[in-house]
Amino acid sequence: MDRETFDRMFDEAFDAAVRESRPGSASSPEESWERVRKMLEAEKRRRAILRKLSMIVTVVTSLLIGALLFGQAQVTDAFRPFTQFFKEDALSLFRGSSEPTNEGALTAPPPDAGSAPVSGKSGVQSTGSAEEKITVYSFEEAVKLSTAPIFQPENVPEGFKLAYIYLFKGKEKQVSRVYLRYENGEGKYYRYEQNMQSLDSWLSQFFNKEANKLEDIVIGDNEVKVISDAKGKKTLVWTFAAGTLSLSGNIEDSLLMELTMLKK
After folding, report:
1. What are the average pLDDT values for consecutive 10-residue runs of the chain, which has 264 residues?
2. Could you tell me which residues come within 8 angstroms of residue 180 by beta carbon, excluding any fewer than 6 positions away?
3. Which residue of 25, 69, 180, 214 lies most exposed, with the fewest beta carbons within 10 A?
């Protein structure tokens, strides 16, 4: 039998079978998909239950080990998967995750006594310790707030002017420190800090023998202590009234020396 005869006979048999067949109804595909969905949901619930049971077993085991070793329930490293689950599976979903890094500071450094005031208005500010910091912008205001004499420099270099004054009050509400800052508007500054304590007491509190160098000089009528740090930055300290006066800044050393030439 050749190929053409076979194809013709096959087509005739197929047509005859179609004519003699009876129409039937096919089942709805939704029923099959619904069965599949139920099976998937059941499997998902089963796995979730197993995960929770595994977590519970881990925690209980951790507590039992702690009780056995230390006589009471102690959480050991077996507790780690519990927190890891929240970090990796829960928190990272909303917040993301990253590896720890040492680049950059996590927080800004705290301001020192020379940091600029927040606003241009006088006022009281807490320093986070027992001290109370008051900001003023004139000697008239400062004198009214202090029972002790406040240093008022007579020699102010050209281009510099008083930026602000800090008065620090202790527990007894008496001024214990006064901070004067002068600026020229071009990034240069110098500052006086008046402490109501003796020079020896000031040195014992603030002078670091290992990191700094101390030198005694005489400038005008004043016996001055010159403190130099490792970078060569100088702080000049001398006795004023009943306390101690220190001077520092980012100006030339010669100008710092000139600023100490005043009468006691």
Report:
1. 79 76 65 83 89 84 76 53 52 46 42 55 58 92 90 90 93 88 94 90 86 87 87 89 88 88 50
2. 151, 153, 162, 165, 191, 192, 193, 194
3. 25
pLDDT value at residue 28 = 66
CB atoms within 10 A of CB 123: 11
pLDDT at residue 104 in the model: 45
Structure tokens at 78: 């077996």
Residue 187 is assigned to a structural domain of this protein: yes
Residue 207 lies in a domain: yes
Task: Specify the DSSP element, H or E, that contains 158.
Answer: none
Give the contacts of 183 (CB within 8 A, at least 6 positions apart).
160, 161, 163, 189
Q: Give pTM, 2 decimals.
A: 0.52
Q: In what order do the strands lie in the sheet with 234-240?
A: 123-126, 132-136, 161-169, 175-183, 189-195, 243-249, 234-240, 222-228, 213-219
Burial profile 137-157: b = 16 or more Cβ within 10 angstroms, e = fewer: eeeeebeeebeeebbebeeee
Spatial distance between the Cα atoms of 89 and 92, rounded to a whole number of angstroms: 6
Question: Are 141 and 155 spatial neighbours (Cβ–Cβ below 8 Å)?
Answer: no
Domain count, the chain: 2
Residue at 224 is within a domain: yes
Q: What is the pLDDT of residue 20?
A: 72
Domain that holds residue 207: 123-259
Q: How far apart are CA 192 and CA 151, in angstroms?
A: 9
In the prediction, which pLDDT does 67 show? 73
